[in-house]
Amino acid sequence: MADKKVSKKDIAKLLKEWSQQFAVLAPSKESGVAAFAEWDGKDTGFLDWYRNTVIPPKASFLPPMEEMFRFRKGKEGYNIEPPPNDENKRLIFGIRPCDARAMSILDMTFKQALEDPYYLSKRKNAVLVGLGCTNPYESCFCTSMGTGPTESADVDIMLIDIGDDFLIEEVTDKGKELIAKTKDLKEAAKDDGAKAEQAKKTAYDKVTRKLDTEGIKDKLLASFDDEEYWEKVAAKCISCGICTLLCPTCYCFDINDEMVKQEGTRFRSWDSCGFPNYTKMPMENPRQEKWRRVRQKVCHKYEFYPMTYDVIACTGCGRCIRLCPVNWDITQVIESVPDKTGAKK
Ligand code: SF4
Ligand code: SF4
Question: The pTM is what?
Answer without folding.
Answer: 0.94
